[in-house]
Amino acid sequence: MATHNEFQKLALIASETPRAQDAYRALMEQHDWVPLDQADAVVVLGGDGFMLQTLHGMLDSHRLIPAYGMNLGTVGFLMNRYRSGINLTKRLNKARGVAIAPLRMHAVTLTGDTVDWRAINEVSLLRETRQTAKIEVSVDDRVRIEELVCDGVLLATPAGSTAYNLSANGPILPLDSQTLALTPISAFRPRRWNGAILPDRSRVKFRILEPEKRPVSAVADQRELRDIAEVSLEIARENALTLLFDPGHTLDERIVAEQFVV
After folding, report:
1. Separation CA 163–CA 177 (nearest Å)
2. Distance between CA atoms of 125 and 233, rounded to whole angstroms?
3. Superfamily (CATH H level) for 103-237
4. Which of 4, 118, 176, 198 minimizes the number of CB atoms within 10 Å of its CB?
């Protein structure tokens, strides 16, 4: 983690919500901003969803500059607290950088089409109809579960372990744990399987059983692909992103704190 930065060129972007737009107009008058494609770092105003959208835009454009979020949404797990009337350049230069490597998803549909997407939080497989899904689960080319009967299953990064994974009763993972959470969603069989924590070097593959009768979709953060046949997942270390956090408010601390919420 970096403890000192020297950002000279900053870009400012905001979600379309009224609160974020009000903050955007106020901050526009306080700094000489540059376009995103010329910036050393970007200030993101909004919530976690808008931050994920911004990070995915960076992945698509192959321009991976540090992102500093200020929460003007709801949860704001990936964001810092919004404060007006501050020296924003000084605040960014004191921020700590947290590297986050996304998942690489390679999926094949029933028609033979393929996609390669990235997921910062998680990749989820979800049944499309009232029929439960049947999924074969392999880790590092070894079948671990021959038939998982469920509503779905997901693989989450540490950064995403407090999102959908936590709602599905998956474990919270510290950022430096070098692990992934493999979590079933409403598993019917095996009844006692609650998921697994895997090394982040693992390669995970899901193969859909009876896909015509029991169709399954794959969701990589906010993107959905329907009627899949199989999905392969691994960490994309070459696409690591950097989030900036105020001292004392890093994502590591938030992950620890979340485990003591009662």
Report:
1. 17
2. 12
3. Probable inorganic polyphosphate/atp-NAD kinase; domain 2 (2.60.200.30)
4. 4
Do 138 and 107 contact (CB within 8 A), yes or no?
no
β-strand 228-235 against 204-209: which pairing, if any? antiparallel
* The three-state (H, E, C) secondary structure of 30-87, written as one string: CCCCCCHHHCCEEEEEECHHHHHHHHHHHHHHCCCCCEEEEECCCCCCCCEECCCCCC
Instruction: Give pLDDT tens digits for 166-176.
Output: 999 999 998 88
Domain residue spans of the chain = 10-101+240-258, 103-237
Mean pLDDT of 189-205: 95
- In the prediction, which pLDDT does 197 show? 97
CATH superfamily of this structure's domain 10-101+240-258: Probable inorganic polyphosphate/atp-NAD kinase; domain 1 (3.40.50.10330)
Whether 48 is a known active-site residue: answer yes
Q: Is 220 helix (H, G, I), strand (E, B) or coil?
A: strand
pLDDT for residue 185 is more than 70: yes
pLDDT of amino acid 2: 42
Output DSSP code: residue 23: H
Which residues lie closer than 8 Å to 189 by C-beta, 6 or more apart?
A: 147, 148, 149
For residue 189, give the DSSP letter: B
> Per-residue pLDDT tens for 213-222?
999 999 999 8
Cα separation, 61 vs 227, in Å, equals: 28
Helix (H, G, I), strand (E, B) or coil at 28: helix
| pLDDT tens sequence across 19-67 | 999 999 999 988 889 999 999 999 999 999 899 999 999 999 988 999 9
* Active-site position among 32, 37, 48, 116: 48
Return the pLDDT at 74: 82
